[in-house]
Amino acid sequence: MHEIWVAVHKERDALIQDLLALKTQQWTTPSLCPGWDIHAVLAHLVNDAKTTPIGFVSRLIAAGFNFDRINASGIARERSTDPNQTLACFHDVRSRTTSAPAPLATRLVEVFVHGEDIRRPLGIDHEYPVAEVATALRYQAKTSLKLGGGKERLQGLRLIATDTAFDEGIGKEVHGAAIALLLAISGRPVHSGELTGPGALSLTAAN
What does the domain layout of the chain look like in residue ranges? Predict the structure, then answer.
């Protein structure tokens, strides 16, 4: 548990550093997350860091158990008029260890996937800790789409990481770096050639 939070905090700090030099117009760049720009993803991360189990349950009930609605309300609540103010808020909550009542691996999924939601459209490269990415990938591979995972996307496929110990699924092989596999199974697009093998097209076509 401690190791996961250490990784989460390091990733939050790294993302803050990457965003400090952003120009005003870059904040409205569409992210990899459909319908969200860069600023919206950051506001979501602020809201996520502030979330507590009790707060999440109460807001979920208020949102009629609609996860899209609860995410939208969280973004609206935490998105400042000035993106730099939102970034300052993220800095203030970067070391928190609160979250929704969900497996702790979801915190890794959150910082890795949303980190790439932001970085890739901006052309920012980042080296992720592959062992922790594999932990996030295992969670996504076993979790249904309804709960934010990607289990259904793995049907008929075998994902094999080329940079860490990860080999899950049965079927056509898909090879690639753990972060690219995590993005793909989480419904995000990846760069051409990042994934190879007879099952690569099936996985990327689903996104």
Answer: 2-122, 130-205
